[in-house]
């Protein structure tokens, strides 16, 4: 398990549930000893270059998840640097010309 995932996903509530179920120590070891795996490698960048869609997940301030699909021609999702992706975000509204 990548270390960065555990650092993000294991909120105090999750850690409490892990402790209650007896798995907290195991996850602590993963976070302490696991690889960060938080950089875009050349192999991952090549994979991303061929995508024609992906899902973007966010969470509101009240904890409500929102999942959105984004798509386009392969190459629309760009690797900007080893930690950043970029894409054009279109409104989805369609206009017609007279």
Radius of gyration: 18 Å
Report the total helices.
4
Strand order in the sheet with the most strands: 1-2
Distance between the termini: 55 Å
String of helices and strands: HHHHEEEE
How many strands, what sense, and barrel or not for the largest sheet? 2 strands, antiparallel
Residue runs with pLDDT of under 50 for 5 or more positions? none
The number of domains: 2
**Secondary structure category:** alpha+beta
Tell me the strand percentage band. 15-25%
* pLDDT averaged residue by residue: 88
Task: Please report the total strand number as a whole number.
Answer: 4
How does the overall form come out from the CA principal axes?
flat
Structural overview:
With 98 residues, this protein is α+β, with helices and mostly antiparallel strands. It has two domains: 1-37, no CATH class; 39-91, no CATH class. Helices cover 36% and strands 21% of the residues. The chain has four helices and four strands. The protein has helices at residues 3-9, 12-21, 24-33, 42-49, and strands at 53-59, 65-71, 78-81, 84-86. It has a two-stranded antiparallel sheet. Strands 3-4 form a two-stranded antiparallel ribbon. β1 (53-59) and β2 form a beta hairpin. α1 (3-9) packs across α3 (24-33). The longest helix is centred in the first third of the chain and has 10 residues, at 12-21. The protein is flat. The model has no long low-confidence stretch (mean pLDDT 88).
Short description:
The chain has helices spanning 3-9, 12-21, 24-33, 42-49; strands at residues 53-59, 65-71, 78-81, 84-86.
């Amino acid at each position: 398990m990548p270390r960065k995932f555990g650092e993000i996903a294991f909120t105090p509530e999750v850690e409490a549930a892990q402790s209650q179920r007896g798995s907290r120590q195991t996850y602590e070891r993963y976070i302490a000893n696991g690889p960060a795996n938080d950089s875009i490698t050349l192999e991952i960048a090549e994979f991303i270059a061929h995508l024609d869609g992906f899902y973007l997940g966010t969470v509101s301030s009240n904890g409500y998840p929102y999942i959105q699909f984004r798509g386009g021609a392969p190459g629309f999702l760009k690797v900007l640097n080893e930690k950043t992706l970029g894409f054009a975000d279109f409104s989805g509204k369609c206009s017609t010309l007279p």
